[in-house]
Amino acid sequence: MMLTTTVLALAAAAQAHAHGSHGAHAGHDMIKAHSMQCAAIPANAADTLFNQFNAAWATKNPDEVTKLFAKDPVLLATVSNKPRTTPAEVRDYFVSFLKGSPVGTIDTSTVVPGCNQLARMGTWTVALTNQNSGVRNNVKARYTFIYKYEDGAWKIAHLHSSMMPVSE
63-96 burial, b if ≥16 CB within 10 A, otherwise e? Predict the structure, then answer.
């Protein structure tokens, strides 16, 4: 189901003001309507999308994780200083990160829906397993996922995760 919103560009008022025109028809040809389709967002969408992300991590296949990202992603990862802004850079990050067998658990969550976007932010715990010793380490972090509706599917447009500055 798609919802329709209409966005009006109110350039006419600025145009009329800029040209000193105050008449009723001043700048009327500058008003344009733009119709945008907004994808319906199921109530449990944030949980479903996160579960897909966690399941992709479980495959340990960087291509499976990268498929979940938008064409123009921004990944600000917990254990990388480099912003990843292309699918190739996102994939490159996950080649090494997935070796730690990550498992994410949402601790706190705030979800904000919008037209063709969904934001989820809060705190999470990412369990990582050392390949050599098998020791599991729980990393407490803050996160922000921003999803966008792209080509008929919800994709991660932005993911930012950063370790908590103070351990409790």
Answer: ebbbebbbeebbbbbbeeeeebeebebbbbbbee
